[in-house]
Amino acid sequence: MLRRRGNPNWMKHLPMTAGPAGASAFEHLAAKLGLLPEQYAGSPVLKEWARKNRNGLYVPPELLQVWGFVVDTGYAFSPEDYRNNRSRQHTHIPID
């Protein structure tokens, strides 16, 4: 008798399910401080935390706008710079 090897279910795709999303670090801090959403903009502690963590953690965009913070996305090139750099990087050698 032949022994079957491998996973017999390898072609059966399981549905991708995402677990329930937890509260963000921002929401945890706001709850720890006992703040309601309408009190967020007036909290100096929350504002300082958001200033330090705006580039790495979630901060509601409305608050960033109210406080005048700009998020550094890490994208340093404009689309024009990208096109210029890309055209210089790829040299085409004609094939005879």
Description:
The longest helix has 11 residues, at 79-89. The protein is mostly helical. The mean pLDDT is 80. It has 4 helices and no strands. It has helices at residues 25-33, 44-53, 61-67, 79-89. It is flat, with a radius of gyration of 25 Å.
List keywords for this structure.
4 helices; 96 residues; mainly alpha
Instruction: Assign an overall shape.
Output: flat
Average residue pLDDT: 80
Oligomer: single chain
Order of helices and strands: HHHH
DSSP, total strands: 0
Low-confidence stretches: none
In helices, the fraction of residues equals: 25-40%
Secondary-structure map with pairings?
Elements: H1 25-33, H2 44-53, H3 61-67, H4 79-89
Summed up:
The protein is an all-alpha fold.
